[in-house]
Amino acid sequence: MAKKLNIITAGGNLPFANNGLKLSENILVVKIEEHEKFKNLFSIDKALLNRITVDMEKNNFDSSQPVHIWVTKGDDGKEHNYLIDGYTRVAASKMAGIKMIPYFKHTFETFEEAHRYALHLQTDRRNLNGIDLLKNIQELMGSDYIQSLEGNKNEAIGKELGVSEKTVERANKVNSMASDEQIERIENGEASPNQIYNEIINQETVDEEATDEQRERIESGEATVKDICKEIKAEKKSRKASKKKSTDKDDDISESLSTNEGTPAGLNFNHSDGIERPSYRLSPE
């Protein structure tokens, strides 16, 4: 079992690695192991990988940017050097033919602690977005840390990732309701999580409120889900405006009746043209 982590709390019990102020060490690239979960949670940008590789071929590995490795023992008792941060740099090192690189050694009790530390490193350098954002929100939502919290879990995840509570809510909906095709479009960079969220909301609106005629137009290809959703929203807006107009008209009539209270309709002798007119009274019989 790995050495127990000395956790320092910082804005949500964020675990800090216990290497303190130790200097980085060197490790053979071939001894670094990829951890499937970390590899999947943080994607590699191919253009960035190529740029770093070219730079390493010319200038070697930048020693000011060590990778981060979780050293732990597995169930088999063997020691593992799991890469938790620096997948792009390690991949570039292999492509550039570099055999040894600097690293920081970390010991964590669980994957969850290692994951939260890796998130801390990632969000300090960049904003998570796209499929990386979705995957890490999903991982955090299922973690013991978040599930054990009382109160707003979306807000807690937002603080971990440096995003808004609303962003987390939308990501959760995408994670739970997006189709395989929609997830694939996010992975390929063809759509953002927010765009897919809007597609899901539009589909829900159509499913709940579209008429048979509107559904037939979608099925025949005459209109898209987005088109019908716009129609539904426009119809709602029109009905709301008509209702408001009718209410205002009723209010005007009520106000007019209130002003002439006690005067029979048709016997109002007040004139606005300034001409004096005789008034007649019926003589009692």
Classify the oligomer.
Answer: single chain
CATH superfamily of the largest domain: Conserved hypothetical protein from pyrococcus furiosus pfu- 392566-001, ParB domain
Largest sheet geometry: 5 strands, mixed
Structural class: alpha/beta
Report the total helices.
12
Poorly predicted regions are 1-21
Q: Which CATH-level-2 architecture of the largest domain? A: Alpha-Beta Complex
| Helix percentage range | 40-55%
Evaluate the radius of gyration.
34 Å
> Which shape, going by the Cα principal axes?
elongated
Q: What's the pLDDT, averaged over the residues?
A: 83
Which series of helices and strands comes N to C? EEHHEEHEHHHHHHHHH
Could you name the CATH topology of the largest domain?
A: Conserved hypothetical protein from pyrococcus furiosus pfu- 392566-001, ParB domain
What is the CATH level 1 assignment of the largest domain? Answer: Alpha Beta
Tell me the β content: 5-15%
* Annotation, overall tally of beta strands: 5
Terminus-to-terminus distance: 115 Å
**Main sheet: strand order:** 1-5-3-4-2
Total domain modules: 3
What keyword list fits this structure?
285 residues, Conserved hypothetical protein from pyrococcus furiosus pfu- 392566-001, ParB domain, elongated, disordered N terminus, alpha/beta
Description:
The protein has 285 residues and is of the alpha/beta class. 53% of the residues lie in helices and 9% in strands. The chain is built from 12 helices and 5 strands. It has helices at residues 36-41, 46-59, 87-96, 111-125, 130-141, 144-147, 153-161, 165-177, 180-187, 193-209, 212-220, 225-259, and strands spanning 25-28, 33-34, 67-73, 79-85, 100-106. Strand 3 (67-73) and strand 4 (79-85) form a beta hairpin. Helix 5 packs across helix 8. The radius of gyration is 34 Å and the shape is elongated.
